[in-house]
Known about the structure:
Blueprint: E1 13-17, E2 24-33, E3 36-41, E4 47-51, E5 55-56, H1 83-89, H2 91-100
Antiparallel strand pairs: 1-2, 1-5, 2-3, 3-4
Amino acid sequence: LLTSLPAHMSRSACAARFSQDGALYRAEIISVKDQVVRVMFIDYGNSEDKSLLEVFMLPEELLVTAPYAVKVEVDKAVDVDDEEKILEEGWLSGLWKRMVRY
């Protein structure tokens, strides 16, 4: 049974209803302002603004598993506009070879 979440629970684990499918997913409360709760879905990495009616306390047994989403930063990330240049220079091929250790 899910219970409503108090508004003062910033940075707490919760269950939140995802707008695309209406299902409940594990989330973390990022911020609370008025009746709007900003959550990040901890197993997917995306975030949404939810009403207090769409955010619930998470049962303890669902907190045992660590979040599946991991924040990463990509070194040497490039704009899509540079894609042709990268392909011409073979940079991506070289990176792939280093990753799989040819």
